[in-house]
Amino acid sequence: MNEPEPGLSLWHPARKLALDRAACYPGSMLRVLLKLLLAAAAVAAVWAYVPMGGRTMADRWRKAKTPSQFVDRTWAELRGLPAPKPPPRAAPRAQARTAPAPRPTESHRESDRRELDRIVSEHLQ
Predict the structure, then answer these.
(1) Is 44 helix (H, G, I), strand (E, B) or coil?
(2) DSSP, residue by residue, 65-109
(3) 3-state secondary structure (DSSP) of residue 59
(4) Are 78 and 68 in contact (CB under 8 A)?
């Protein structure tokens, strides 16, 4: 059997002569960046404008109080299941009802009015 030349193997005979693969040339990186931007724009358009089950994802996000609630409700709606019920809230504590507070009134004495008139007249002079 013939021995291969040094640097060549029987399985990949031309590996020594092959050019290095492009690691990150500007042209290829620009294409990757444009593809990512296109994918992000498509996801944003679906998020904002495409109704799924009657509502858009943006509407569902605004209605949900937490991210986990958003995921649970959206997944249930898309699968056609009823939305999960929120955990029950504790009943508010009972409070004793009292008569409404009387309306506040101003009660100034005559001496208070005279003092106020004196201060205002001094200020205006």
Answers:
(1) helix
(2) SSHHHHHHHHHHHHHTPPPPPPPPPPPPPP----PPPPPP-----
(3) helix
(4) no
How far apart CA 59 and CA 2 sit, in angstroms, is 71
Which amino acid is residue 75, in one-letter code?
W
Q: How far is CA 120 from CA 25, 107, 109, 111, 117, in A?
A: 82, 19, 17, 14, 5
Token pair, residue 28, equals 């290829």
pLDDT bracket for residue 12 (50, 70, 90): low
Place of tokens 């009802």: 97
Q: What is the pTM of this model?
A: 0.40
